[in-house]
Design brief:
The protein is of the alpha+beta class. The chain contains 4 helices and 5 strands; from the N terminus they run E-H-H-H-E-E-E-E-H. The radius of gyration is 21 Å and the shape is elongated.
Amino acid sequence: MINFKFRGKVTADDYLKMVRRLTNFRNLVFEIAIVLVVLIVYYFIKTPLMTVLAFLVFAIAILVLNYFVLAPKKYQRMYEQNNELQREQVYDFYDGMTFAQPIVKVVYFDDAVYFYFSKNQAMILKKEWLEKPGLWDAFQGFVKMRIDPTSKNK
């Protein structure tokens, strides 16, 4: 019988890393699109070049400030308010297991796998939490074959 045991605690850095991996790229693309739309509008209303450049510098400063200062503080507060997230997590994966909630999506990385139960609810499984770290690739294969709702291998 296949059995994968995980034990670990989500840190604030783990939480921030997950959020950045899964949402910041989408947010960044959206923010860049807004900047481009404003620049195009400025171009069509014949705004002086210096005004457009000033806006561009201001927009880039806001994007950098948001990414490196504001967003991390926001997610740090969210992490601190979630006592359940800060507790040690213990998971046991085996053939025939079921989940209390259906898994909507699974996202794979070299050092972690994220199970999404809804848009804003995910389970973090880190490679270093695996009882036998040499089984990480086998675990990802197990998830793709038996758990991932989008997998074609089922």
